């Protein structure tokens, strides 16, 4: 194995995990590999065919990605091809059936379409594994569900003696289980690398589209530019990319732009000048993603909250590949959190709708917590970290704690009175003394707490609601696409112990939004 690694890939040793995974596959065992982008997953399915002389079939979602991989394998003297571009398919088929290829790539659609006879012939000449790349696409609970992936389960019936390897960079526990079940893996070897990128600093800031934000952005970018590193600014819309790019250019910062509405030529050019350091700043939508393997990105800024923590982790994770200290800043505005309609517009299945809502809520929570960001992120991916990281904004700022018993009582009492039928806006409007139509119609203006919370802004109250939810006083449920808030068991107990004049102390650490 070491000889092959040296001869074909030019590396002197395997990375931790690679060797173990390859040995398991060679032993015929199914594997689930969850490892960060750039950690070297592809070797896990590229080495076994060279050891065994049998073909590895790799399922991959994108044609362009497959082409890149095939090209780089060929340069390494490995016989690789892909099925997908139809004119050449016929000869690829017949060569594959006579065992010519070490590695054969195909899209999931192709994999489900090829006749059983093809698999039969391939098995006869020798097939060492079936790899499913970007395996999270198989799960409705994942952040990038694809229908074509779901059908891959039929392959198990044809390829029962071939080890399956599912590979992905991001999968929560739920998604991991889903992959194992969907691919009908039996007693798989599961290898989950750490999600902890210790050289990355995580920070979050609320922002409105104001002057101060623009100045801050420019200052940040200048700082990393001066140190010779690159920056990516991710925007949620094409319009934002144009605006931010203009803003930076006006400030004298040479910036590239990249989004899905540009022609492929312009995009390629933009990508190339970034990789070659001709431009140090790229303002882009998430279309700027796959295949960015640039070591010296020092800073990734998100302008607008991403739709899930999986995407955030992946996008922010593009900085600091060289292991040097780098920063990930996320600027959100409250309206980012009500974009569910937008993401749900063409989604059919109930589970998927729920998954999208849950992802969005998790991303919102990440923005609103007062505690360690890294700990929260890692927990989301099922990794427990003891102690705070000391390398995120919440760990670095001076903690502000306050007794919020009065305010908590008001919010809990108000939510209880609303009867769990509303989202957060209604109780907050009541506390702030609104006399909107809905409030009058429901007689909420008659509640004893009506108007008692005028001293704090809506944002402040939302901050408190976030804290009370995090501590189990409140609980949020998703009812189809609606988020409803109700009082949890701990909140009920607190209400029983309190009245309008007296509440037991409740000391909480304020989020940055609550500090005015
Ligand atoms: P992933 O699929 O996990 O995103 P890749 O397989 O593309 O990662 O590998 C990322 C980079 O690491 C590639 O440039 C690859 O050549 C390099 N790499 C992989 N394994 C090794 C190794 N054992 N030694 C040195 N470099 C490696
Ligand atoms: Zn921290």
From TrEMBL:
Ranges where the Helicase C-terminal domain occurs? 216-368
Q: Which GO terms describe its cellular component?
A: chromosome; cytoplasm; nucleus
Whether Isomerase counts among this entry's keywords is yes
Superkingdom of the organism of origin: Eukaryota
Which gene is annotated as encoding this protein in its UniProt record?
MED34
Protein name listed in UniProt: ATP-dependent DNA helicase
Q: Which keywords label this protein?
A: ATP-binding, DNA-binding, Helicase, Hydrolase, Isomerase, Nucleotide-binding, Nucleus
- Keyword Signal listed? The answer is no
Query: What are the residue boundaries of the Helicase ATP-binding domain, all occurrences included?
Result: 22-189
Molecular function terms from GO: 3'-5' DNA helicase activity; ATP binding; ATP hydrolysis activity; DNA binding; four-way junction helicase activity
